[in-house]
Design brief:
It is a single chain. Helix content is about 45%, strand content about 15%. By secondary structure, the protein is an alpha/beta fold. The protein has three domains: about 80 residues, N-acetyl-beta-d-glucosaminidase (Double Stranded RNA Binding Domain, 2-Layer Sandwich), CATH 3.30.160; about 325 residues, Alpha-Beta Barrel (TIM Barrel); about 190 residues, N-acetyl-b-d-glucoasminidase (Four Helix Bundle (Hemerythrin (Met), subunit A), Up-down Bundle). The strands form four sheets. Strands 7-8-9-10-11-12-13-14 form an eight-stranded parallel β-barrel, surrounded by five helices. Strands 3-5-4-6 form a four-stranded mixed beta sheet, with helices on one face. A two-stranded parallel ribbon has the order 1-2.
Length: about 625
C-alpha cells in the first residue's frame, strides 16, 4: 500500500524517519491524500494500528514503534502490541571477512526500523582504520572513520542507536598475529595486561570509537579470555589468579571510559568461567568470590550471551546471576543463527529465542540484542536472517504469541518476498531428534567442506550414533528446497533464492557422488568408476562453479570485496580435489596404483557434526 502522511498532523520527531524510509518504500508527503496518521501516547510500551475513516491510525509509545506501525499500515493490517524491551537490537559480526558495505547496512537499517528495532552493534575486532596503526584491518576492508560516521548519521535518521562492539582484552588475534604487536601480546588472542604500550593501544581504540559514534555506550567485549595471564605474562610475572588480572585491566579501561564520558558494557562470561575448573560458562553452581564481585566497577553493564539453551530456567537463573555480579541492569544477547551456516538456521533461532524472551520478561531485562555471528568465514547468506529477525520481533512485540499468517503479510510488506519460502530454506540445516530428546544438527557446511576422497564429514554422518538413514533424510530435505526455489531463482529481495538453490544442489550432488564412488569402488565396478571420472566429476565442477557465481553475486551486494578470497580458495581447492579424484580413479583403472588408499581407510567415528572448514578439508593439521 502507498502511504501518504501530512506534516501538519504528524509529530515532528518522525519527519526525518519517514523521509529516510521513503528512499526505498512507498511513502510520501501529501496532505490532501494522507491515509496514515501518527499519535504519540504516554504508554511507552504500546503500539496500536487501527483503520478508521479511510485512515490508518498509528498510536505509538516509543519512536521505534512508529516505524513498525507504518509497516503494519503498508501491509494493511491492524495490530495491538506491547513490548517490554526499551532496547531491541542486533549485533552484526564484521570480523570474519564479511565487512558489510555502508550502502547495504543502510538497507539493513531501514528494514530493522520497520521491524521495530532501535539499536545495532557493529562488531569489528580490528576491522577499522586506527590512525598510525597500519595493520588494523589490513587487507580486510577496514572501515574508515568517515564510513562509520555515515552509518551513525543514517541510523539516527531512523531513530536507531549505533553502538561499537569491539575488543579491549581478548579476541584480538587478527592484529596480534603481526610481529609489530609482539611486545603487547600475552597469548595469540589476548593482550598483555599491565603493559603500558598495551594500555595505550586500548585507549587509542576506545578514543577512536568515542569520536566515531554519537552514542555514549560502548561494548568492550572482554569475553573468552580463557588463556589470560598464561602466556608471556606468566613468563614475566609468574602465575596470578585470572580474576585479579581481569578486574585490574577492567578498572583501567573504565578509567579511560570515564575520561571520554562513555558507558561501558562487557560480556559476563569470564566471571563464571574463571569460577570453575572446566571454565564452563553455564555451570549454574559456580561461585564467584565476593572480593571479585566487589572489584567489578559499578559503571560497567554486564551482558549475558546465550545462543544455545532451549530451557527458560537457565536463562532466568543466568540473567539473575549476571545482574547480581555488580548490580547492573540485565542485558541479554541471544542469536539469530547465521554462523557456521550457509543459510540462517530458523529452527535453532526460534527454539532458543522463545525461552530467552520469556526469561527476560520474567526477570525484568529491558535490553536484548540478537547476534549475527560469522564464525568459520562469514559465508552465510546474511540477508536470510531478515526472516529470523522478523519472527523474533513478532514474538517479542506480541507477548510471546507469534502468528505465522500475520508475520507473512508483515514480512512481505517490509522485505518484498515470501516469508514461507525463506523459512523453507532453513532446511539447509537438517535437524532431527534422538530417542533421548537430544536435537541433532547437520549444517550444510559439513557437506560442503567435506573432501571427496577423505570423507571426514561423510564418516561422521555414518556413525552408529546417528540414525541409519540420515543421509537419505538430508537428501530429501535438500531436494525439497531445490524444488521449492527452482521457480524463484530471480528473487533477490531478501535471502537470495538462487543461492539457496545452489547450496541445495551442490550438497545433493556431493552426497550422491560420495555414495556412488564408495559403492563402485567396493564392487570394483570399473564401468561406473570410469563414468564417475569422465562424467560425474565434470558435472560436479560445473555445479561448484555455478554455486560460486551465486555466492559472489550475493557477496558483492552485501560486503566489501575483501574476504571473498576465502570462498575462492575453498571452492577452488575443492574443485582441484575432484580433479584429483578423477586422476586417482584413472590411475587405479590403468593399474598404476593398486588401490585408492583414502577410500580404504576405516574408522569408527562418534558422530560429531560440528566442524569448521579446516577440520574437513584435510586430516592434516594446519600450522
Amino acid at each position: 500500500m502507498k502511504c501518504y502522511w501530512n506534516p501538519a498532523d504528524t509529530p515532528a520527531e518522525l519527519y526525518t524517519m519517514l523521509r529516510t524510509l521513503a528512499e526505498e518504500y512507498p511513502i510520501a508527503e501529501d496532505a490532501a491524500a494522507a491515509n496514515i496518521r501518527f499519535v504519540k501516547t504516554d504508554a511507552p510500551e504500546t503500539l496500536s494500528v487501527k483503520y478508521e475513516d479511510n485512515v490508518w491510525l498509528i498510536t505509538y509509545g516509543r519512536t521505534a514503534f512508529a516505524a513498525r506501525g507504518l509497516a503494519y499500515a503498508m501491509a494493511e493490517m491492524e495490530c495491538n502490541e506491547t513490548i517490554a524491551f526499551k532496547t531491541y537490537g542486533i549485533l552484526f559480526d564484521c570480523t570474519r571477512g564479511n565487512i558489510i558495505t555502508v550502502k547495504h547496512f543502510k538497507h539493513w537499517l531501514r528494514r530493522l526500523a520497520l521491524m521495530g528495532y532501535n539499536m545495532a552493534m557493529i562488531y569489528t575486532k580490528d576491522a577499522y582504520q586506527l590512525p598510525d596503526e597500519p595493520y588494523f584491518g589490513y587487507m580486510r576492508g577496514a572501515y574508515s572513520m568517515a564510513e562509520i560516521k555515515e552509518i551513525d548519521a543514517y541510523a539516527k535518521q531512523l531513530n536507531i542507536e549505533i553502538i561499537a562492539s569491539i575488543q579491549a582484552l581478548g579476541h584480538l588475534e587478527p592484529i596480534l598475529r603481526w610481529p609489530v604487536y609482539g611486545k603487547v601480546r600475552d597469548t595469540a588472542s589476548t593482550i598483555m595486561v599491565d603493559n603500558p604500550d598495551a594500555l595505550k593501544l586500548v585507549e587509542k581504540i576506545i578514543t577512536f570509537w568515542s569520536e566515531a559514534l554519537t552514542s555514549r555506550r560502548i561494548h568492550l567485549g572482554m569475553d573468552e579470555t580463557h588463556d589470560l595471564g598464561r602466556g608471556a605474562f606468566m613468563d614475566q610475572n609468574g602465575y596470578e589468579n585470572p580474576f585479579h588480572i581481569y578486574n585490574r585491566h577492567l578498572g583501567r579501561v573504565c578509567d579511560i571510559c570515564k575520561k571520554l564520558n562513555l558507558e561501558p558494557i562487557i560480556w559476563s562470561d569470564m566471571y563464571f568461567r574463571y569460577a570453575n575448573k572446566t571454565q564452563n560458562y553455564y555451570d549454574t553452581n559456580s561461585e564467584v568470590p565476593q572480593e571479585v564481585k566487589d572489584a567489578i566497577p559499578k559503571m560497567v553493564q554486564l551482558s549475558y550471551w546465550d545462543y544455545y539453551h532451549r530451557d527458560e530456567a537457565i536463562y532466568e537463573k543466568m540473567l539473575t546471576r549476571t545482574s547480581a555480579l555488580n548490580g547492573s541492569a540485565p542485558f541479554m544477547a541471544s542469536g539469530v543463527w547465521t554462523w557456521s551456516r550457509m543459510w540462517t538456521d530458523y529452527e535453532m533461532t526460534q527454539a532458543t529465542i522463545r525461552p530467552c524472551v520469556k526469561a527476560c520478561n520474567k526477570v525484568g531485562a529491558k535490553e536484548i540484542i540478537y547476534t549475527l555471528w560469522g564464525d568459520d568465514g562469514g559465508y552465510c547468506e546474511f540477508d536470510s536472517a531478515f526472516a529470523g529477525l522478523a519472527w523474533a520481533a513478532d514474538y517479542a512485540y506480541n507477548q510471546e504469541q507469534s502468528d505465522e499468517e500475520r508475520l507473512a503479510k508483515f514480512y512481505q510488506a517490509v522485505c518484498g518476498t515470501s516469508y514461507q519460502l525463506q523459512i523453507a530454506c532453513g532446511k539447509l540445516c537438517y535437524t532431527y531428534k534422538l530417542d533421548n530428546g537430544q536435537i541433532v544438527k547437520v549444517p550444510s557446511n559439513l557437506i560442503f567442506w567435506d573432501d571427496p576422497l577423505l570423507g571426514i564429514g561423510w564418516n561422521e554422518l555414518h556413525s552408529k550414533n546417528h540414525k541409519a538413514d540420515l543421509v537419505d533424510c538430508i537428501l530429501a530435505d535438500y531436494r525439497e528446497v531445490r524444488d521449492l526455489t527452482a521457480a524463484h531463482r530471480n528473487d533477490t529481495a531478501a535471502g537470495y533464492l538462487d543461492h539457496a538453490w545452489n547450496i541445495a544442489n551442490v550438497a545433493i550432488r556431493k552426497l550422491e557422488f560420495r555414495r556412488k564412488l564408495l559403492a563402485a569402488y567396493k564392487a570394483n565396478d570399473q564401468a561406473v568408476l570410469k563414468e564417475i571420472a569422465e562424467k560425474d566429476v565434470p558435472q560436479m565442477l560445473e555445479d561448484l562453479n555455478r554455486f560460486l557465481t551465486s555466492y559472489r553475486t550475493q557477496w558483492k551486494r552485501s560486503f566489501k570485496p575483501f574476504g571473498l578470497e576465502m570462498m575462492h580458495i575453498r571452492i577452488g581447492g575443492l574443485c582441484e580435489r575432484y580433479r584429483e579424484t578423477a586422476r586417482m580413479i584413472n590411475e587405479y583403472l590403468n593399474g598404476e596404483i593398486e588401490s585408492i588408499m583414502q577410500l580404504d581407510e576405516k574408522y569408527e567415528t562418534n558422530g560429531n557434526l560440528y566442524f569448521q572448514y579446516k577440520d574437513l578439508a584435510t586430516g592434516c593439521f594446519f600450522v
